[in-house]
Amino acid sequence: MKFCNLCGSDLAQRVPAGDNRPRHQCTECNEIHYQNPKMVVGTLVSDDQGRVLLCRRAIEPRHGYWTLPAGYMENGETTLQGALRETWEEAEANVSTPALYQIFNVPRINQVYFIYRATLDGAFGCGEESLECQLFHQHEIPWDELAFSTVYHCLKRWFQHPNDHQVQERTIDYPARASS
Ligand SMILES: [Zn+2]
C-alpha cells in the first residue's frame, strides 16, 4: 500500500496515537488505512456415497491443483453465504444442511478459513475458476495434488473421523502444498 485511497497522497508507516503497532497513515489527510486478516470461506461437500467434491483450480495460485470450493469472503455477506456462493461459483453445486466444520487460522499469511460441511443437492458442474470438478472416494483423493495444506487437513479429518462433526479450530503454519 503506497497511496491514500481517499486523497491520493503518500502513505507513511506510523504508530497512531493510542495504537501499539505501525499502520499505513496518510501524510496529508491523516487517514489510517488498517490492514486486517482476510476470511476464506468454503465447503466440504459430500454425497450419499461418501464422496467429496473437489475442484481443480483454473487460476493462480496453485493452478491445476485440487481444492475444496472456497474463496475470499465478500463485503455484505455472512461466512455461510460466502461459502455457498463460492461453492456455486467454482462447482455450480447447490448443497443442503450446511454446518460450520473447521476453522483454520493461518497467521503467517493473515488468513482465517471457515469451512462448512454440507450435502450435495442434485447435480454439479464446473465454474469458471475450475478446470474440472469431481467427486472422490477416500482412496481416489489426489493427495499429492492438493492445492493447500488446509485442504489436506480438512480431508484427512473428514475421512479419518467421519462421525466427528464438531467445529474444530486449528492453526496452520503455512498453507503450502502438503504431501501425504
Ligand atoms: Zn489521504
3D architecture notes:
One of its GO terms (molecular function) is catalytic activity. Residues 36-160 form the Nudix hydrolase domain. Pfam families: NUDIX, Zn_ribbon_Nudix. With 180 residues, this protein is mostly beta strands. The protein has 2 domains: 1-35, Ubiquitin Ligase Nedd4, Chain: W (Single Sheet), CATH 2.20.70.10; 38-171, Nucleoside Triphosphate Pyrophosphohydrolase, CATH 3.90.79. The chain has 2 helices and 11 strands, in the order E-E-E-E-E-E-E-H-E-E-E-H-E. The strands form 3 sheets. The chain has a 5-stranded mixed β-sheet with strand order 7-4-9-8-11. A 3-stranded antiparallel β-sheet has the order 1-2-3, with no helix packed on it. A 3-stranded antiparallel β-sheet has the order 6-5-10, with no helix packed on it. A hairpin with an 8-residue loop joins strand 5 and strand 6 (66-67). The chain is elongated and about 60 Å long. The structure holds zinc ion. Residues 4, 6-7, 9, 26, 28-29, 31 line the site of zinc ion.
